Amino acid sequence: MKASMVWLAVLLLLRGETVNTAQEFDPYRVLGLTKSASQAEVKKVYKRLVREWHPDKNNDPGAEDMFIKITKSYEILGNVERRANYDRYGQMEENKQGQHQQGFNRHFHNSFYFDESFFNFPRSGRDFSDSKYLLDHAGFNSKVLPDSFKRPYLIKITSEWCFACVHIEPVWRETVQELEPLGVGIGIVDIGYERRLANQLGVHDTPSILGVVNGRVTVFHYSVVREHLRQFVEDLLPQRLVEKVTDKNYVSFLGSWHVENNPSVLLFDQVPAVPLLYKLTAFAFKDYVRFGYVDQGLTETSRLLHQFNINSYAPTMLLFKENTEQPADIIQAKGMKRQIMEEFVSNNKYLCVPRLVNQHLFDELCPIKQFHRRRKYCVLLITGEEPGFVPGNQAFLTFASSNTKDVLRFTYVYQRQQQPLCQALLHNQAPLFAQVVILERRSPGGKAVYRSVIGGWNGSDDDKTRLHEQLELLQRDPSYLSYDATLPELNNELAPVMLWTKKMMPILSLIFSALFILFGTVIIQAFSDSGEEKPPPKSKPKNPPKTDDSPGRYSPSSLISPHPASRPPKKDFVEVTELTNITYISNLVKLRPGHINVVLVLTDASKNALLRKYAKEVFSFSGTQTLHFSFLNADKHSQWMPSILESCPTAARGDEHSSPFSGRPRDFTGHVLALNGHKKYFCLFRPVFTGDTDTGGESSSSSSSFDEGSRRKSRSRSRSQSSSRSRSREEWGSSGRGGRGGGRASRATSLEVHHKLDRLGLWMERLMEGTLPRHSVPGWPGLDTTSPSSSPAPQN
Prior knowledge:
Elements: H1 2-24, H2 27-31, H3 39-53, H4 63-77, H5 80-89, H6 96-112, H7 137-147, E1 153-158, H8 163-179, E2 185-190, H9 195-201, E3 208-213, E4 216-219, H10 226-236, E5 243-244, H11 250-254, H12 257-260, E6 264-269, H13 276-284, E7 290-295, H14 302-307, E8 316-320, E9 329-332, H15 338-346, H16 359-365, E10 377-383, H17 390-401, E11 408-414, H18 419-426, E12 435-441, E13 447-452, H19 461-476, E14 483-486, H20 496-532, E15 552-554, E16 574-578, H21 584-589, E17 596-602, H22 607-618, E18 627-633, H23 640-647, H24 649-652, E19 672-676, E20 681-685, H25 699-715, H26 722-737, H27 741-747, H28 760-769, E21 775-776
Parallel strand pairs: 1-2, 5-7, 6-7, 10-11, 16-18, 17-18
Antiparallel strand pairs: 1-3, 3-4, 6-8, 8-9, 10-12, 12-13, 13-14, 15-16, 17-19, 19-20, 20-21
Helix pairs in contact: 1-6, 3-4, 25-26
């Protein structure tokens, strides 16, 4: 009982001393300030005391403790929000419990001299070297977020009494020592003091590690190992930051300066992976320079190494501008440091003659005049993107390369891209040639003085001499720029909308073209359907004859066909096109695969009769999409049919006795050919014999016609009845054997010609079934082809 009372008294005593210790801490007293001191005075006193009590400079044994007190005092008073809370409540609410426990632990530790590892209960007092990385809400939003667009940040979330934070501290220190010299930003957030910042970052547990790149926060979820943290930082960077360059793509990489409007940098090294230092440099200057990496260990880069004479014993950086054959600058060092690399790139951020693509670049290249600085003149070439302006643009680049004075900055703009600026300088004129304008900006409001070079610019020697003289005069007399204007803000050619428009313009053009064709087809179809829906007139007029050179619509005599079709027709007429020199290529030679053109052979005398019969026979098949219907005038193209038959002996056997001794050309009237232009074959329909011969023909001609008709009759394999065949034979026989053949032939008029196509419907059925014999040809002859074996027509 007495022992318990003693321990209770000791604990009460220690608690009282702890409360007194906590109450004795006063940040105003530590810094020697009053509550009315301004923030500037707090910062000034803090800097002075830090220099005075820094443990590396002060040998006083209590310097470290005093330095920690000074740092903590500034953490409270240096932040307006924390200082207000302290002045209002006298103590930071979130640290009352922590400071009480810390004071108790410190008193207990100092009084009994227990080692911290005795209970494995280490104290998490923050090291004084971490104070320079501490972040508050205002500093994070004003410094870290904007700077994260140039370099990544690695931030640790901790608190006063975070025991797990102590275990990752050695790894964190090693990572900071490795990554900070490379350019990685480091930050520490005390979640006890910066609850508002912790809420913004979305973290509430300690310890936590975050990465910030391009204003975006990413949480680290892996085990805290130095290699993992390094890979985490590398993964934060954009993927296509550095392009791998080989012998195959280095020409296109270096030649892209015209489109990218940026110089190009090549790093030659022997390691397969791109160094992290190079990636960080590329990220810092991603808006100004394109970066490529060449692996010297690959055989695909040997030509590149030989061309630029690269030394393989040390990393080498080459920077190219407009001249892709010769580097504008070069650097080589075994220990490539961040400062050297950034200085090398920073001094070559722009091309010799960069193009003004936005207002930000205009402000950097052509700054506003400052009284305490040297004058800067901008020599601006207003040109175009057309090929006719290329020689003048190249001459302007040559002139600028030979005039590298610091007071002059040569640039150019495309008039179509920056019309407001060009109109302000050219007074709304549209020059036929490129123009050179010398200007000096005077105020942020856009006021500038300028003068145009007389005579325009086409790159001639006279233009170069005239421009050189005016630049020399300008440096002697700045008042030479006698015109003033208010320049508008430049269009941002790199804006996402403009880039999207440029890339999507071909696709949009294709889409609009397709929509236009689609709507046009729908409208035409609508008009056609409306015409089809009209009821036919009661009295059907006679179809007028069609012209020879235009396609015609021929209506069948009866819309009800006795022959079934695979697809019902959509229209009450058949479109028949004449094969001429204009339509021959599209309707036969270049006919789409799978399509067949059914061609009727006729003459001027038999045209009307045969076309009406032809339309009636093929009408029921006109609904098939792959069938086309045409006719060939044998009077105009008399040698085409003989050429087709001579090129295919199997098809010409049935015509070998046709007028062999008459000296007259063979008659192909009524023949129908189904032509497959793609596969180069045809199916042949031979007409039914009608006894129709030429008036005044010889008896031999009639006999020959009989032989031809009977031979054709014997070869026909139609499905007609035998009575029709016997009746046809009787007609042919009476025509050929009666002794009055010439007289009976003279009585056969053109009205009987249409009977030649009586069996065309049955032939069309077999064509659709694919059972007709096919005759292949090596090629399609021309319409005006002359057959060497054909005899000329006799002269009357």
